[in-house]
Every structure is written in C-alpha cells, then in structure tokens.
C-alpha cells in the first residue's frame, strides 16, 4: 500500500479517539518538579538557571506592566520546545505541525496584546496605524495597509511555526526514504546520504528550539508596542 509523505502529519486515532490531547499534555509530565529543599539535583538546577536566563532576556525590553506576562510566555516557550523536540523522535506525532493548534495559540495572545493597548493607551495604539510625517494624500492608503499588516500578524505567527516544522519533517522523511532505497544498490551513496540525514536532523533540533523562541519573542514585541 502506497503511503503519502503527508500521512505523518495526520492526528493519530485510537478507537476513533484523536490522541492529539495526549500529545499536548504529555510534555508537562517530563519536567521534574522543584522541591522545597535547599539543595536540588543538577537537573532541576540547570532547568531553573535556563528559565531564569530566558525570562531576564525576554522581559528586558518590557516595562513593569509587561512583566505580568512572564509566566505565560516562558511556559509557552518551554511547552513549544518540548513538543517540537519530542516530534523528532521516531514514530511520534508533532502537534505543532497542525496550523489549527498554532493559530489557537497565536490569535488569542495577539488579540490580548491589542486589547491591552486599546485599553491602556488607545492614542498610541491607534497611532501605530499612521506613521508620523505621512503626506495627507497617502493617509487613507497607509491606514488600510497598516490595518491589514496588524491583522496578518497572528496568521504569520502560526504559519511560520507550521511551515518550518512541516518542511523539516518532510525533508527528513524524503532523505531517509532515499537512504533505504539506495542502500542495496549503491552503498557508498547511501552512506553519504545518511550523513546528510544526520546533519539535517541536527539542524532540525536547532530549528525546533529557534522557532519556539521566535514565536514567543514576536509575541513579546507585540506586547512591547501596547504596554
């Protein structure tokens, strides 16, 4: 039976029940829970150090009002990194290759930043739609363009994460298929192709972490404009 390369992105079913909920909730079980003891083990210490460093880096350009989002943004980045990394394991499903899930993250958070800006500083928020010093004949056109670019932001967030992960998974599957096909016919070429596959896998590990960081970083920049 011929299997499509895109079948790997279909949500797995068991007895007709989609297992994407398990794939989303499972990452939280993998992280160790900090204890109340004065001295923790090395894993918890490294985990806390990394989270503190990222939080400081993310909250640096924001004022005190934006620091309320620290827990949400850091939790989202850790969640996305974990899902993306687990999706690189064999016979696993990556929920972040689904545009619906990524848009479910992007749209509410983007809308929250817009609502905060309209509530706290409506003049500044609306001023972003019209750059200073714009010639009077161009004012209607620029307002339309800036409004469209504003509403495209959540779409760009979701599509960027989905497209990068989907492309990487497809490349890995294509090259892995080529290795198995070439191995009995041209072993030398198959070994070279396997080396490329290994390097591509390392690249996808980096992409999995970078894309999660970019997703949260862009949300923090949107928040910075509205707080």
From TrEMBL:
Keywords: ATP synthesis, CF(0), Hydrogen ion transport, Ion transport, Membrane, Mitochondrion, Mitochondrion inner membrane, Transmembrane, Transmembrane helix, Transport. GO terms for cellular component: mitochondrial inner membrane; proton-transporting ATP synthase complex. InterPro entries: ATP_synth_F0_asu (IPR000568), ATP_synth_F0_asu_AS (IPR023011), ATP_synth_F0_asu_bact/mt (IPR045083), F0_ATP_A_sf (IPR035908). It is a multi-pass membrane protein. It comes from the Eukaryota. The chain crosses the membrane at residues 12-31, 69-89, 101-118, 138-159, 171-199, 205-223. It catalyses: H(+)(in) = H(+)(out). It is found in: Mitochondrion inner membrane. One of its GO terms (molecular function) is proton-transporting ATP synthase activity, rotational mechanism. Belongs to the ATPase A chain family. PANTHER family: ATP SYNTHASE SUBUNIT A. Component of the ATP synthase complex composed at least of ATP5F1A/subunit alpha, ATP5F1B/subunit beta, ATP5MC1/subunit c (homooctomer), MT-ATP6/subunit a, MT-ATP8/subunit 8, ATP5ME/subunit e, ATP5MF/subunit f, ATP5MG/subunit g, ATP5MK/subunit k, ATP5MJ/subunit j, ATP5F1C/subunit gamma, ATP5F1D/subunit delta, ATP5F1E/subunit epsilon, ATP5PF/subunit F6, ATP5PB/subunit b, ATP5PD/subunit d, ATP5PO/subunit OSCP. This is ATP synthase subunit a. It comes from Tor putitora.
């Amino acid at each position: 039976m011929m299997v499509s390369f895109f079948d790997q992105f279909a949500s797995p079913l068991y007895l007709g029940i989609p297992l994407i909920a398990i794939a989303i909730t499972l990452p939280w079980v993998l992280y160790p829970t900090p204890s109340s003891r004065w001295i923790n083990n090395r894993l918890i210490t490294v985990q806390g150090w990394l989270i503190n460093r990222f939080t400081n880096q993310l909250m640096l350009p924001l004022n005190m009002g934006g620091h309320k989002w620290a827990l949400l943004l850091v939790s989202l980045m850790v969640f996305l990194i974990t899902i993306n990394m687990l999706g690189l394991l064999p016979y696993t499903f990556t929920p972040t290759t689904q545009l619906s899930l990524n848009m479910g993250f992007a749209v509410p958070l983007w809308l929250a930043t817009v609502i905060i800006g309209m509530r706290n500083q409506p003049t500044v928020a609306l001023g972003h739609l019209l750059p200073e010093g714009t010639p009077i004949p161009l004012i209607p056109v620029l307002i339309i363009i800036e409004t469209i670019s504003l509403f495209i932001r959540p779409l760009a967030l979701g599509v960027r994460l989905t497209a990068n992960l989907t492309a990487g998974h497809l490349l890995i599957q294509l090259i892995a298929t080529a290795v198995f096909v070439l191995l009995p016919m041209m072993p030398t070429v198959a070994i070279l192709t396997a080396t490329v596959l290994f390097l591509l896998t390392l690249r996808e590990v980096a992409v999995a972490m970078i894309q999660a960081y970019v997703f949260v970083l862009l949300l923090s920049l949107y928040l910075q404009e509205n707080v």
